[in-house]
């Protein structure tokens, strides 16, 4: 709940957007990883959120943050960060895959899920039979 309020304040202009600082962002990303590895999920989320604000093009940190938020059942925030990551780094297949899964299973947004699975499939170096099956299933469900 506190995270959503903080996020709402940031989007509403409660905090000015910081200047990009990839070095500080990398330090925060590493702190977040260490916190996560030590079971301190809330600290990891806080560190990764700050890192993403300082370097919105860091796809790995965005992905970690989104998965941590999803682990806390904050699927909308996770999807928002994944979309931000895709805007900044559209060639990262994992961002598309995770947005597809969250969209399909938790947000019930089948159109987004289908488009993101397709993007993942197009970007992936190897064919994934599971994803191909999920695409076929979504196409059937959406009568495409």
What does this structure look like?
With 144 residues, this protein is mainly alpha-helical. Helix content is 74%, strand content 0%. The chain contains eight helices and no strands. It has helices at 2-11, 22-37, 41-54, 59-71, 75-88, 93-105, 110-123, 129-141. α6 (93-105) runs antiparallel to α7. The radius of gyration is 16 Å and the shape is elongated. Residues 1-14 have low confidence and may be disordered.
Characteristics:
144 residues, 74% helix, mainly alpha, disordered N terminus
Helical/strand content category: mainly alpha
Total count of strands: 0
SSE order, as H and E?
HHHHHHHH
* Helical segment count: 8
> Strand percentage, roughly?
under 5%
Cα radius of gyration in angstroms: 16 Å
Q: Mean pLDDT, as a whole number? A: 91
The first-to-last residue Cα distance is 38 Å
Unreliable spans: 1-14
Give the CA-based shape.
elongated
Report the major sheet.
none
Which percent range fits the helix content? Answer: over 70%
Task: Give a quick summary of the entry.
This protein has 144 residues and is mainly alpha-helical. The protein is built from 8 helices and no strands.
Protein topology:
Blueprint: H1 2-11, H2 22-37, H3 41-54, H4 59-71, H5 75-88, H6 93-105, H7 110-123, H8 129-141
